[in-house]
Specification:
Number of helices: 8
Helix content: 40-55%
Oligomer: single chain
Length: 193
């Protein structure tokens, strides 16, 4: 596949690094669940899934989102954010310019919006879908498909850029192409030589 009709980026670890101590978040979520009289499993995502099943999703979601919003305000801009700002990137020797851009993230939508605003990227992003924007979260394809739809694109003509195996699996399930952020940055370096 040559050119794409849209590109969708993951947020944390791809465009920015949220200033979030995930160990503290997990401890706070554990505390919230225990205060509700339940014995949660280990691991933040396991606790989120557990909270969903047990009817505590709203409290857990707000606890996580509070940390994410604060972390977004103090986030670090990463090198790939320049792709969003200048509207061009090179992948497999093909340079793409000025195509629709979206964000699909495991972080809450508000944190995504805070981070892209803080780093001057908001005006370049046509769609933002976070963990709480739809009823499921990555690797379920719903969030990526919602982003693709909001951009007016079709899955097979979209490139999803992320930093994790969960992102890669999301792309596979949604029918988009996928590239790890490290590969895209490597392509940039090759194109510059």
């Amino acid at each position: 596949m040559g050119a794409f009709d849209a590109i969708v980026y993951d947020l944390d670890g791809t465009l920015v690094r949220l200033a979030v101590d995930w160990g503290t978040v997990a401890a706070d979520v554990d505390r919230v669940l225990r205060e509700r009289g339940v014995d949660p499993p280990a691991g933040l995502w396991a606790m989120l899934e557990f909270a969903e099943r047990e009817g505590h999703r709203e409290a857990v979601e707000e606890t996580i989102a509070d940390h994410e919003r604060k972390g977004a305000r103090n986030s670090e801009r990463l090198a790939l954010a320049d792709h969003v700002e200048d509207g061009r990137y090179t992948h497999n020797g093909v340079t793409h310019e000025r195509i629709p851009i979206g964000i699909c993230s495991l972080n809450c939508e508000a944190a995504c919006r805070i981070a892209i605003e803080a780093h001057g990227l908001a005006e370049h992003v046509g769609a933002v879908v976070g963990r709480d924007s739809v009823s499921t979260y990555k690797p379920d394809p719903e969030s990526l498909l919602a982003t693709v739809e909001a951009l007016g694109a079709t899955s097979e003509r979209v490139l999803f850029v992320g930093d994790s195996d969960r992102d890669a699996e999301t792309a596979r399930r949604a029918g988009t192409r996928f590239v790890y952020v490290s590969e895209l940055l490597s392509d940039d370096a090759d194109a510059a030589e």
